[in-house]
Amino acid sequence: MPVGTQATVKAISQEDLEEIGYRLILGNTYHLYLRPGRETMRLAGGIHKFMSWPHAVLTDSGGYQAFSLSDNVKLLDTGVVFRSHLDGSEHIFSPEHTIAIERDIGSDIIMPIDDCAPYPADHKRLKESLARTHRWLAECKEHWLRDPRHQNLFGIVQGGVNTLLRADSAKACADLDLPGYAVGGLSVGEPLEYYAPSLAAAIEHLPKEKPRYVMGVGTIPELLNGVALGVDMFDCVLPTRNARNGQVFTSSGKINLRNLKHAQSEWV
């Protein structure tokens, strides 16, 4: 999935995305909630009309922002308290609130709020992460089922690089019988040699007949490892970010088109 955090994929038009063949792109609940805001999204008729995109949209819930913006975040048993990076105001993303926001956004695949532990994290912190993530997922499912609106709730597997905890988390998510499943908390600084075993431990216990999604993964080794393990979906800012900065991937390695030696390169 190309990443359109605030309802637009940077530096590429919807027409180009369609021509390439994409039928699913990603937005972010936290960022859309802050700007343009849930009321604007609701009045626009949802994210599809807001961004003139006729195909599917997945919205991440904000769990990753709780990890990446940790200086502005408090984790409570009831949810995640964010201090806005725009104006400093406080907002709580509880399971109920997260589902309500994603209803207003109107995305096709919605993600629950979760607790993404940093790397490295000790066993105690990982267990806390799993307890919160599983409890919040069950609450999100409860609120989603009250008014599903043809939206599909995915579960999120956590567990760091502990393969036993990854397996336990995957089993807990699978037991909830959801439309699809995601593996979060990878590609957050762990060495590549830990990535594949951690992912494999989760994928093994997720239903093969339902979509399996690895969140925030976009390097070529990670993609190839994921495909080999049976992953169906990926998202990452790297493809469009690298392209905007003039980086090209080739069979002989990366090329940075901003290097002086390419200033007079011919178009071929």
Describe the 3D structure:
With 268 residues, the protein is of the alpha/beta class. The chain has a single domain (14-236), classed as Queuine tRNA-ribosyltransferase-like (TIM Barrel, Alpha-Beta Barrel). The chain has 10 helices and 12 strands. It has helices at residues 14-20, 29-43, 47-51, 63-68, 95-105, 123-146, 163-174, 192-203, 220-229, 238-244, and strands at 24-28, 56-60, 73-76, 79-83, 90-93, 109-110, 152-157, 180-183, 212-214, 233-234, 247-250, 253-256. It has a 7-stranded parallel beta sheet with strand order 1-2-6-7-8-9-10. A 3-stranded antiparallel beta sheet has the order 3-4-5. The two termini are 28 Å apart.
Give the helix tally: 10
Major sheet characteristics: 7 strands, parallel
The CATH topology name reads TIM Barrel
Strand runs, count = 12
- The largest beta-sheet arranges its strands as 1-2-6-7-8-9-10
Mean pLDDT: 94
SSE layout and pairing:
Blueprint: H1 14-20, E1 24-28, H2 29-43, H3 47-51, E2 56-60, H4 63-68, E3 73-76, E4 79-83, E5 90-93, H5 95-105, E6 109-110, H6 123-146, E7 152-157, H7 163-174, E8 180-183, H8 192-203, E9 212-214, H9 220-229, E10 233-234, H10 238-244, E11 247-250, E12 253-256
Parallel strand pairs: 1-2, 2-6, 6-7, 7-8, 8-9, 9-10
Antiparallel strand pairs: 3-4, 4-5, 11-12
